[in-house]
Each structure stands twice: as structure tokens, then as C-alpha cells.
Amino acid sequence: MIEQEVRTPAPDTGGARPRGGGLVIGLGVFVALILLRLITGETDITSSGTMGATLALAVPIGMAALGGLWSERSGVVNIGLEGMMTFGTWGAAFGAYFSGNPWLGLLGGVIAGALGGLLHAIATVTFGVDHIVSGVAITILAPGVTRYLSDLLFTDEQGGGATQSPPLPSFPTWSVPGVGKPLGSLEKHHWILISDLAGLVRGVLTGLSPITLIAILLVPASFFLLWRTAFGLRLRSCGENPIAAESLGVAVYRMKYAAVVISGGLAGLGGVFLAMVASSNYQEGQVNGRGYIGLAAMIFGNWRPGMVAGGAGLFGYADALQLRGGAGAVHAMLLLIGIGLLALAVWRGYKGRYVAAVISAVVAVGVLLWFFLTDELPREIVTYSPHITTLLVLAFAAQRLRMPAADGMRYRKGEGA
Amino acid sequence: MIYRVLAKSYTRTIVAALVALVFSIAITSIVLSVSGFNPPSTFQAMFEFGKEPDSIVNTVNRAATYYLSALAVAVGFRMNLFNIGVDGQYRLAAMLAAAAGGAWALPVVLHQVVIVIVAVVVGGLWAAIAAVLKVTRGVSEVISTIMLNFIASGVIAFLLNPSRLATKVAGSNNIGTKPISSSGRMPGIAYPGSELKVYSFVLIAALAGIAFWYMINRTRFGFDLRATGLSQSAAVASGVDAKRMVVTAMVMSGAVAGLVGMPQLLGGSYSYSLDFPTGIGFTGIGIALLGRNSPVGIAFASLLWAFLDQSSQILDFNDIPKEIVAITQAAVLLSVVVVYEIVSRVGKRIDQRHVAAQLGEVPA
After folding, report:
1. Per-residue pLDDT tens for A383-393?
2. C-alpha angle with apex A94: A162 to A107, nearest 5 degrees?
3. What is the DSSP letter of A206?
4. B195-228 pLDDT, tens per residue?
5. Most buried of A414, B53, B219, B327 (most Cβ within 10 A)?
6. Are the beta carbons of B143 and A394 separated by less than 8 Å?
7. Chain A residue nearest residue B155, CA to CA
8. ipTM of the complex
9. B326:A144 CB<8 A
10. What does the radius of gyration of chain A's CA atoms come to, in whole angstroms?
């Protein structure tokens, strides 16, 4: 009977605008990167290797972020994504190794992650445990469980042990035909724009794993499910005002369960990628904070699928750059950050916010001095550039964000006043 | 009868803890049985090993470290501030304190005091980054402190380099800070029947617990802290400066976190090297949750946790993976939060019925 209302969902202010805006921002960033490459001579800034690695590293972060989005849209904060990804890495190894089939590894990882989500749902939805407490507990639980199970199941296998699985069967990779070679030669010339574009296209279209494709498709699929179906509207209503949703006959508990289990499954998929695509076996500590970076990407993306994917891309790029380009390429980024902060200072001055402008300007000058007075950043610290990026991005961007109104709130059926 | 048992909040806590303990022993037994081991003999082996004098000393030492870590977490938890960054705070603090203690030659007592002060200041400052980001930029402290953990690892790796603050440890591939001279060490306390010494920092951990209790229950600041935790809007309405509370509580939490590495540094290793224990910050979160953020509860929880860690050492000799203990610990943790939730709900219902009965509205 609520079909009627559902067919015309409330006008979604963010629906069209950010997608167009995102394109403009993306183009702007790309042009800035090209300029940066020309000025500093760090070719890895736009190389196909870096772009391919960006995509690869963005997938697990993006899946965690999308998982967080599903959960938080239903009003459950999921800080346990890290643990669910850990379950996913192990589940992938279990499924793939004992069946010899990578696709069963995919299934195993998603199920393992979803079970982690189910545990979170039982604790938070049924028992009303604080969401952060439950999430932290799951993140503590996951490494213990996986270590125990690995010790039982993998130690007697060839190449396996308590902290890693034996080598796993891998997925076939796939490239768009006719792209690799011609673009590769274009890229070598380092022509302005053309070579950079070639690097981007070649990096993104060659050597794709099926998991990457699935992950990319899950972004529009999530948008469609959450914003264009009755199920999605009901689910989101639980995150905005569960008491109102309840009064309209929405089964709030069931919706929250569905969202959190899907969230765990998505995080598990990110784990599958880490164990089977980014690496060739399960290793302890493989997730390495990506679940939390995913949460940051979700916040940065303002709880919207397209923007969240953009955020994942940003963190993926930070990771790819330090892996591929190393200390030199990350050092070049200082110039970009410095100029960006200087622009921010001018903007804030123009807006009359002088204190903020002065702070930005001082930091900008500091960063620029750092760039011009040094040749390289310390390797030990560059390793953590995704984490530093996360912190900086949240510090400078967490402003006009709107989280679901009832996010993290405890909801008990029938207790709404 | 049930009313009397559940009337006091601390009995509720005890009931919840006991139920959770029984539940997690049951879970552990099931996991052991499914894996083909005999639960009673496993528990017996652990208990026999755990009550040897050497094990007791190790348990107490470990528990002191866990206790400080959990206290640091609890300071924030009491006002719903999640300092997940204790891990980075204590490692960076221990590393810089060790470097300072190794580099400076100072008279006894002053030397120890300076090392501890350096640790406390470093821990507090590292936590302050997250606090400032939260109050000025609205960045969730959960994410910022986690990121700061990673960044702390980077900073430590950078500084712990032979060309900077570290030296090679003689006779191994390990590198560490210059060892603290004997004037900066804390002598251990002998325990009958064991060659090992109990860290004297255990006493300071206990003092920290008393100070925590006093601060929470007997000071204006502690009252504001608890009030903010229970209802931020009510606290703000009654004149609490929420931003200042966030910064103060976070810095205090970080300062306590700075103490976490001290028992080991001053009583055992005397230098910060690559094999300095890591991950204690996360253990502290679990223990704080288990001990319900109260100084006494945390003391029991950290002893239990340390006992499980220590007594599980024997299991590898019996071919049982000692990680079974991690499952026990996680089961305790998850079940205690769930059980406490249920117990307090039941308790509240009983309270209501009791009050109603006394008012004569419902026949008792």
C-alpha cells in the first residue's frame, strides 16, 4: 500500500549534481597531476603502473567504504569493517584452497564477511549494544579466530602456516583488447596530456580481475538499490528516523539486519580482493587498517556511493603513489598540497575568514618550504601516506557533510515516544 | 530475592561478568571439542601451568601493563570518547622516553621521574592531535586515532634508525635505543619460588588506578566527565564546556597511555628495540570494556586476560593452538557487553516493578 509513495522517491538533491561535479573535480585533479609531473619530472605521477595500482588499491578500500555506507544508511555504525575484511581474507583462502576454485574463494570470503556482519547485527540490533563497542570487539575477535583456524587447517599444508595460507588459485585477468600495446608506446613519449591520458586509460583497462569489475559494478548497483527501489527507501528511512519508519510499517529490525549483513559481505569482498588478487595467499595482518580507511572514504564521500568511490580512488592513489613512485613522487605531492593550501588561504581571505586564511597560509608556506628544501621524504614515513592523506582529507574536508540522522542511535522496537 | 541481587549496579556488573565467563568457557569448550581436543584436560593443563611461581610473576607484570592501557582507554570511554589510539601513543611515548633516558645521565630517582615525564608528555601530545582535530574540524576521534597509530609506526621506524636515535643491539640484528643506565632503572620485587622479579612499576599502576577512581568519583572534572558521557546535551546545558572536556579527557587518556610502556622499559628491557611489545593498546580496549571502565573491574579483567595469555603458553607443547585463548578473550568481551545490556534491562524492569509496588499501584 505504500507502493504509491515509493514510486516517486523524494527529489534527491545529491543525485545528479555531485556526479557532474565529480567529473569536473576529477578533470581538475587530473590536469593538476599532469602539471605536477611536468614541473617535477616524476613520471610515476601519471604512469599506467600507478593508475593500475590505484584502481587495485582502491577496490578493497572502496568495498569497505561501500559496506560502511550500507550499514550507516540503515543507522548502524560499522566500525567492525576491519574485522569483517579480516574474516573475508581468511574465508577466501579457505574456499579457494580447499576447492581449488577461485570462485568458491570469492563465495567463502563474502560469506565469512557477512557472518561478521551478522554478529554485529545481533549485538547492536537485537541486544542494543553500543555500535562502536560491538565493532571494536569484532575487530579484536577476527584476528584471533582466523589465527586459530589457520593453525588448525593450514599448518599441515604445503606453504601454509599459522599466519598464512598456502598459495591460492588465482582469477584469470582480462584486458580490453587492443589497448595495451599502442597506449604503452604512447605513454613512453611523455607527451603532455596524451601520454598522461594513455597512462590512465591503459592502467585502468588492462590486467583487470573479475573482482575489480564486480567491485566497480557494485557502486552503481548500490546507488540503484538504495535510492531507486522501495527496499532502499525503507532501508534508508531506518537510518534517518526509525520510529517514523516503524509507524509506517517498515520492519526496522529486519532492514537493519539486511543492511549490516550486506555491509559485512561487501567488506568480505574487499578481503577476497586482498587475499586473492592483490596477493596470492591469505596473510595475517593483510587488511592493515584498510577497513578504517574505508570508513574515512565513506565520510569523505558524504554517505553517497559515487562520492564514496571517489574517496576510495583518492586513498588508492595515495597508496599506489608511495608503492610505485616511492619517496620522490610523494615528495612531489608536497608541491600540490602547498599550492592547494595557498589557494584555500586566498579563498578564505576572500570570504572574510581571516584567521582560517592565515592558518592555511602558514601551513602552505611550511609545506612549500619543505618541498623546496628537501629532495625526498623519509621512506619510513612515506609508507604511511594513505593514512596521512586520510587524516589531512578529513581535517580539511569534513565540513558540509550530512550523515544519516539516526546514525549510531540505539533503537528499540515499540519504545518510540 | 532477585531484586536484592540486582539492586546494586556493582552486583549487576558481577553477575554479567560471571555469566559472560561461563558463556565464553562454554564457547571455548565447544571450539576445542569440535577441533578434536579434550576441554577439561586443556583447562587443567593451563591452570597447572598458570599457578607456577614464574607464571604468576609474568601474569602480574603483564597485567600491570594491560591495566594502564585499559585505564587510558577508560578515561575516554567514560565520556563516550573513543581513544583507539592508545597503541600508537604508548609506543611513541616509550620510544622517545627510552631515547631520552638512554641519552641523559641523571641521578637516581630524578632519572626515572624524567623518563616517565617524557613518556606522559609524548603520549598526551600525540593524543592531543586527535582532540584538536575533533573540536576544531569535527573529525571523528575513532578514525583519527587509528590513523595516528599507523603514522606513529612510521615515525618510530624513522627515528629508530642507527643514524638517528638507535644503536645496534650487540650480538643480534635487533636495533634499539641506547640502554638506560642503572641510575634510571627500577629494581624488581622478588617473589618466593621464582627467579623472575615483579616490576616495581606495578605499584605505580595501582596508584594510577586509585588516582583514576578519585578523579572520576571525587572531583568536579570527574563529575563533568561522567555527565558528558551520560548525556552530552544535559551536560552542556548545565554549563560544561564540551570542547574543553574533549581536549582534556583525550590528553589525559594519552598521558596515561604514555605510562603503558614504562613497566617493561624501566623494569625489564631498559631500551626500546624492534621487539618491544606492540598491540597492548588494543588489548586495553577489550579489558576496559570487560572491566566496565571501573578501576576495580579493570584490575580483575587485566589479571584474567594476563592469566589467559600466560597460561596458554603451555598449550603449544600439547599441540593445541594457543590462539584458542584469543577466542576465549573475544567471547568474554562480546558476551559481557551483551549480557550486561540484558542484565541492566532486566534490572531496570525489576526496579520499575518494585517502585510501583511501593507506591501501592500494583499489588506486590
Report:
1. 888 888 888 88
2. 150
3. S
4. 889 999 999 999 999 999 999 999 999 999 989 8
5. B327
6. yes
7. A381
8. 0.85
9. yes
10. 22
